[in-house]
Amino acid sequence: MRTGKGTTRRAIGAAAAGTVLAALALAAPAHAAAGRTAEHQSAARAAGGTADTLTGTGCTPAIRVLASLPGPGEDPRPWMATTEVRGIGPLGLSVGRSQNRPVYWTGTAVHAVPLPSGYTTGVVEAVNRWGLMVGSVAGPGLAPLAFRYVPGAPAVGILPGGTHATDVNDRGRAVGYRRTAGGMTGLEWSGGSLRRELPLPPHMTRLEGVSGIDNAGRIVGDGFGLVGDEGYAAGLLWAADPATPPTELPDVHPGDTYSTYEPRDIDESGRIAGTHGFTHTLLTNGAHWLPPYTAVTHAPGLGDRTQSTFEDISPTTNVSVGTASDSTIVGPWPPETAPPYQATYWKGSGPLLGLPRLAATPTAHAGAFTVTDHDQVGGFAVDAADVMHPVIWTCASKQATLPPSGS
Question: What distance in Å separates the CA atoms of residue 272 and residue 216, rounded to the nearest whole number?
Fold first, then answer.
C-alpha cells in the first residue's frame, strides 16, 4: 500500500522506537510479516504501548502537529508545499518530508533520513508494518535515486535502476519508476533487488506513473494510449504474476484527451482509489475502481468545491482521503476568493466529508495523503501564523463533517 499496511500506534520515545523498529524491519523475513502479529504487539508493549494504542480503540479526536526540521517557516501555499505526512506505520512511526527533505517521525519527534553525498532534497513516500520506508532523493546536477531505509540506519539503500520509489508492501515489495529523457519505466523491487520492469498494455504508448502496491502484489498506475490517431488516458493494474498482462481500468475512451484517470492506491480486497480529472475546466473528483473493474465510481465533491482528489485508501475499512480545492477556470471567481484547501474523508458511500483545519484564517490550507485502518489520517495543515506543519488527525471519523456552503 502507498501508506503502509500495518497497525498504527501511539507515540513512544524516539530512541526506543528507532531501536525496536530497526530490529523488526531487519530481522523479520518478508514472507513472515503476516504471521508475527503477537511478537509485534509484544515489542510494542515493551516500547511503551498500551492495549488502547495497540488496538486503535480509545483514541482522542485531535490534530497532532509533528515537529519540523530546523529552517525557515514552511510556505503556507499548498502548491509550494515541502512538508507533509505521507505514510503512517507501526509504533508511532510516520514518514514524509520536512523542509523538502526526507524524514520520519517517532511520535511528534522528527528525524532526518541521511542523504547520499551531493543530494539535498527528497521525500519518504511510504512505510510498511515493519518500519521499512521507500522514497526518492534529488540533488543539483544529479539524477534522482529511489531508496529504501529503516529507522536508525546510517545510510539509505539505493534501489537499483530506479529514480523514484512510491510504495512498499508488508512483504518488502516496493514499486516506483525510472524516469529518463526517453520516458518512464515502471519497476518492482523485491528486497533490495529489481524484480521486474512493468510492461504496458498494447495500446499504451507511455507510462505516466506507478503509485501503489498491496500485500497481494497487485500494482496500480496510469498511462497514455493511442488507438490510430485517437489518444486517451487510463488507469493501469498489474497482477502479482509477471506472466499476467496488465489491465486498462475504465473508463477508456480513445479520442477523449481531456479526461485523466490516476489510481493512487489499492487495498487488500482490490478496491482502488484515485482521481478523475477533466483538464478542459480543471475539474477533478475522487474515483473508485472495484473488482471486477468494469466501471469507475465517481465520488461526490466536498459541498460546492469544484476539485477533489483521492490520495490513499485504508487497507481494509474502505476509507479514502485526499484534498478539496477549487478550479481556477470554473470558480469561484476571482480565484483569490476561494476558501482554503481542505483535507477530505470518504467512507466509500454517502457525502464527502471535510477534516478540520488548524485555523479559521483564509490561508489555513490542509490536505490529506494517508489513512490507516485505525482511523488516523496524515497530511499537512497551515496554522494562524501562516506556517505549514505535518499533521495527523486522530480518530478522524469523529472529526469529519460536511462543511457549510462556501467554507
Answer: 13
Q: Give the confidence band of 3 by pLDDT, cuts at 50, 70, 90.
A: low
Residue pair 185/199 in contact (Cβ under 8 Å)? The answer is: no
| Residue 68 CA: distances (Å) to CA of 105, 266, 320 | 9, 30, 26
Query: What does pLDDT average to over the chain?
Result: 88
Alpha-carbon 46 to chain mean position: 29
Q: Which amino acid is at 223?
A: G
- Distance, in Å, from the CA atom of 378 to the CA atom of 96, rounded to the nearest integer, reads 9
**DSSP, residue by residue, 129-177:** TTS-EEEEEEETTEEEEEEEE-TT-SSPEEPTT-SEEEEE-TTSEEEEE
pLDDT band at 309 (very low <50, low <70, confident <90, very high): very high
Rounded Cα distance, 102 and 69, in Å: 10
Can you give the pLDDT at residue 336? 83
Helix or strand or coil: residue 90? coil
In whole angstroms, what is the distance from residue 3 CA to residue 373 CA?
A: 11
Q: 105-142 b/e with 16+ CB inside 10 Å = b?
A: bbbbbbbebebeeebebbbbbbbbbbbbbbbbbbbeee
Could you give the CA distance from residue 358 to residue 369 in angstroms, rounded to a whole number? 17
pLDDT at 42 over 90: no
Secondary structure (3-state) at 322: strand
pLDDT, tens digit, 9 for 90 and up, residues 180-205: 999 999 999 999 999 999 999 999 99
Residue labelled with grid coordinates 518500519:
131
Q: Taking residues 390-404, what's their average pLDDT?
A: 96
Amino acid identity, residue 66?
L
Q: Letter for the amino acid at 199?
A: P
To the nearest 10 degrees (0 to 180), the angle between helices 14-27 and 37-46 is 160
Q: Is 27 helix (H, G, I), strand (E, B) or coil?
A: helix
- Cα three-residue angle 251-297-206, rounded to 5 degrees: 35
